[in-house]
From TrEMBL:
Name this protein carries in UniProt: Pyridoxine 5'-phosphate synthase
Source organism of the structure: Ancylobacter tetraedralis
Catalysed transformations (reactions): 3-amino-2-oxopropyl phosphate + 1-deoxy-D-xylulose 5-phosphate = pyridoxine 5'-phosphate + phosphate + 2 H2O + H(+)
Function (record text): Catalyzes the complicated ring closure reaction between the two acyclic compounds 1-deoxy-D-xylulose-5-phosphate (DXP) and 3-amino-2-oxopropyl phosphate (1-amino-acetone-3-phosphate or AAP) to form pyridoxine 5'-phosphate (PNP) and inorganic phosphate.
GO cellular-component term (any): cytosol
Length: 258
């Protein structure tokens, strides 16, 4: 019997449009224009990571995104006093706190919520107090998720990077074990009242699979979509992604999900 399942949202990360711009300098390509095109193509929200070293997204990009977007802006950021102050001033709809190291190419691993102590809890409280919905980017570890709920986060975004790497490398047993870990983490977070998001390393194939995890409410995807846009255009890339997500979600209702 077919049953109705909650919809799955798509957040599009525009960081790597800024990466291309900054490689040469100047103003083009403009990540704000990319965000607008992504919304027209079906993105439900836009994510941008203002890193401490400003290697791609810049402060002005964040301000312009906030000014023009008609969908929620998700401000991805390190859990630092500087970034908290910037977020409070900008007032995006959501903030996702992530670990950040200067030497990494992209965000590696999940936030250590357990080790964040009272300082992390206070940052979550400060952001929440001004109406910003706080998400914590975490590895699929149940103790980290439980702590995220304890300190008042509204959302956890599960780090799918390890699973995607195992899939890409053909490590079937490891991929199955990691996916099972993601599934357990998603169920645990939902049981604690957290909204569950997922992201990092997803392409159409892996997004279609994780879309079949019913507790997951949103996927945040950037690198694949911006790369695929070179060949299919941004609208085409997002259309392909939404189709894959819809197919995965439909498998829940028909009882064919893994």
């Amino acid at each position: 019997m077919t049953r109705i399942v909650p919809p799955l949202r798509l957040g599009v990360n525009v960081d790597h449009v800024a990466t291309v711009r900054n490689a040469r300098g100047g103003l083009l390509p403009d990540p704000v224009r990319a965000a607008q095109l992504a919304c027209a193509a079906g993105a439900d929200s836009i994510t941008a990571h203002l890193r401490e070293d400003r290697r791609h997204i810049r402060d002005d990009d964040m301000r312009r995104l906030k000014d023009v977007l008609l969908v929620p802006l998700n401000f991805e950021m390190a859990a630092t006093d500087e970034m908290v102050a910037l977020a409070i001033d900008l007032a995006p709809q959501a903030c996702c706190l992530v670990p950040e190291r200067r030497e990494e190419r992209t965000t590696e691993g999940g936030l250590d919520v357990l080790g964040g102590g009272i300082d992390l809890a206070r940052k979550v409280e400060r952001l929440s107090a001004v109406g910003i919905r706080v998400s914590l980017f975490v590895a699929p570890e149940e103790d980290q998720i439980a702590r995220a709920a304890d300190i008042g986060a509204a959302v956890v975004e599960l780090h799918t990077g390890a699973w995607c790497e195992f899939v890409a490398e053909g490590e079937t047993a490891k991929a199955e074990a990691e996916f099972a870990r993601l599934a357990r983490a998603a169920r645990r977070g939902a049981a604690l009242g957290l909204e569950i998001h997922a992201g990092h390393g997803l392409d159409c194939a892996t997004a279609g699979i994780i879309a079949a995890l019913e507790p997951v409410r949103e996927l945040n995807i950037g690198h694949f979509l911006i790369g695929e846009a070179i060949f299919a255009g941004l609208e085409g890339a997002i259309r392909q992604m939404r189709h894959a997500m819809a197919q995965g979600r439909a498998a829940i209702g028909t009882g064919t999900a893994a």
